[in-house]
Specification:
Layout: E1 2-12, E2 19-26, E3 31-38, H1 39-48, H2 56-66, H3 70-81, E4 86-94, E5 97-104, E6 110-114, H4 115-124, E7 130-133, H5 134-140, E8 142-143, H6 161-173, H7 177-189
Length: 190
């Protein structure tokens, strides 16, 4: 069983200026999944969400340039050359990284892809739906509060080892030993 997802947005992580959070929800917008992405991916997604910078001419140039980017070009070539209908399915998480597959919906043939790249592909081709395996959704998703949120719930296993080590040190420095213990347990599991 799979849950269909939609992108709600991208937000910066307060504790780390090199990473951002991609917020995905179910269609009913009751639960959310947060994926840690780097600045480059944040930029690519922002462009496709219409977050252009610069004057009107620069924005127009950006829109034209997107037509020549790899995800858009490959999507157009696949549609031209085949009748394959793809979907992206988030299937696992390991060491803070979500993994997905690009699946041919007719044959079930699949190809591995990073979840963030899969999301990027769904922007390049709006006919490519985004799903997550139900068991992973149930294990990783948290309640979604929309605009009423005071923060974002983030399971520890979604953070990279480096981020966890920084968070552990910060907890020790601020004498938050309970949080430090949870972080240490996640590091030990890895």
């Amino acid at each position: 069983m799979r849950i269909k997802l939609k992108v709600q947005g991208v937000t910066d992580m307060v504790a780390d200026n090199v990473a951002s959070l991609l917020i995905l929800t179910d269609e009913a917008e009751q639960r959310q999944l947060t994926i840690v992405i780097d600045k480059a991916m944040r930029h690519e997604i922002a462009l496709r969400r219409g977050k252009y910078v610069g004057n009107i001419q620069q924005r127009g140039n950006t829109i034209k340039a997107l037509q020549h980017c790899l995800p858009e070009t490959l999507s157009a070539a696949i549609k031209y050359l085949t009748n394959i209908e793809f979907c992206v399915v988030i299937v696992s998480i390991s060491d803070g990284m979500y993994y997905a597959i690009l699946e041919d919906m007719r044959t079930g043939t699949s190809f591995p892809i990073r979840a963030s790249d899969g999301v990027l592909l769904t922007y390049a081709d709006p006919h490519v739906p985004l799903y997550i395996e139900q068991s992973l959704w149930e294990a990783q998703s948290t309640e979604y509060y929309g605009d009423n949120a005071r923060g974002i719930s983030l399971p520890l296993n979604t953070l990279s080892t480096g981020m966890l080590k920084k968070a552990l040190q910060k907890c020790i420095d601020t004498e938050n030993y309970e949080a430090a213990q949870h972080i240490k347990e996640e590091l030990d599991r890895r």
